[in-house]
Amino acid sequence: MAMFQFMGGEIVLVTAGEAKRPMRNLPVAARYMYLLPISFYLVAILFVGLNINYLDPRLYHSHLPFFISSRLEGVQTAARSPFVIVIQNAGISTLPGFLNAAYIFSAVTAANSALYVSSRTLFTLAQRSSYTRIRNTIGRTNNGHTPLAAITVSFLPGALAFLAVRAKTMAFQE
Description:
Blueprint: H1 2-5, H2 9-16, H3 22-33, H4 35-51, H5 65-68, H6 82-90, H7 95-127, H8 132-137, H9 148-173
């Protein structure tokens, strides 16, 4: 989740190319680009650190061999999240599921932002290409000024990677 939160510098710069007043809006956006995620994580880590025992067996301890064979051997990392464990310790039964949904929503939002940045970058590169065929296919937009070909080309590697991981998972389950 931390990796997805710190994606931002390139998004602000790519979006500035489509802004109406980039000279006025870009400095304001750049000021908060790293300040908000860093302050959020510092406060969150402080509160979680004050409310959880570092030897809790539900936490993931790869450096301690006696925790590897714990009762949570097959449990995925979402259930071992310190945030989820603190909420379970507090006795709030519905909030861990909500927090896991927020993690999934954060990952989908980050993927959407990455698709936006990669398609706009590919579109700009195609417009400046010396090859006419690339300029006329990937460097074009539809009537709504959306570069559909660049979005499709940017989306395909991610979709193929997802299908490859899914096929590998299915092969291990059989």
